[in-house]
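Q: My labmate handed me this sequence with no annotations at all. I'd like to see what the chain might look like in three dimensions before we decide whether it's worth expressing. Could you predict it?
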Amino acid sequence: MNHYLRTSTEPKIVFIHKGDSWYLPYVLYQAKHINPDSDIVLIGDGFSYAGIRNETLDNYQSDDLQNFINNYIHMSTNPEKFELFCWLRWFHLLEYMCRNNVQSVLHLDSDVLLYSSIQDIKETFLDGECSCGLLVPQKEFSSLHWAASGHVSYWTIDSLAKFCAFSLNSFTDKKYLELYKVKWQAHITKAEPGGICDMTTLYLYWYENQDNIQNLLIAKNGAVFDNGVSDASNYVDDEYVAISGRKKISFCKRRPYFHSSIDESRRVRAHAIHFQGDAKEYLPKFYTGKYFKGKMANELPYPLNSVINKASRVIQKLKTYF
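A: Here is what I predict for the chain of 322 residues:
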C-alpha cells in the first residue's frame, strides 16, 4: 500500500454511507454539534450536506480494494453485495486517509449518535499510545461468536493499513480460510442466519493483536461506547438496565447515561449510542443537535413518516426518467 506524506494530526470524524437515508442528517449534525471545530466527513455516493465535508466513494479506489474483490469468497446468508461493501469501506477509508494526509480518524456508522467531543474521547478514554479502538464483547474463542465491531472505531493510518492487509490475506491464507469455513459450517449446521462478515475479520485481527487494540466496550473513567441500544448487553451479557428491550437511558446536562444492572443508581456516561436496525426510529428522540432542513417532517408519527419517506424515494426515482 502506498502511504503518502502524513501531516494532519487532528483526528477527523468520518462516516461512510451509501444513499440519502432519512436518518443520516441526524448523525452528521449531531457529530458536528458536539464537535463544531472538527472536520466531519461523509464518504458517500454524491449526496451533500451543508457544513459537512462531502467525499465520493468512487474517488477512493485502490489496487488492494480490487484485489480484495477478486479474492472474496461469500459465506453468509446475507446478500453478497451488502457483506462485500462492509469490507470495502475500510479500503475506501484507508485510501481517503492516504490521499488527504489524515493521520487518524474516529469512524462512526451512519446509525450512531455521538455525544462527546473527539478531544474528550482522546483525553479520557483512548490511551496515549492507542493506534486502534474496536468494540469487542467478551466471548470465548471456542464459542465461534467471533464478532468485533467498527461501528465506532479509532484508527491511525498505519493500524488501518495493517487491518486492510490482514483482510486481504484472510481470503488467500489457508489458516484463515479454514477458520472462516469452520464458522460458516456451524451456521449451516444450526440453520443460523449470518456467517462470515467484516466483523469476523475484525475479531480475528483483534484476537491476534489485542494487546495493541483498545476495547471500546469496556467502561473507562465512568464512560463507555454502546454496542447496540436494543440490547442490555455491552462488554458482558446484561450489563445495563433495559426497558422494553432497550437500554435505559437518562440525560444529565444533555449527556446520556446507562444504568448498571448490578446497581441501577450507578450511571455510566455514553460517549455514543448505536441505533442499529429498527432502533433507527428512535434517533430523533435522542438527537440533541441543531435544527436542520427536513427535521420536522422526520419527526411526524412514525407510520406517517414512513409513508412520506417511501413516497419521496419514488418521486426521486421518477425524476430520473423525465
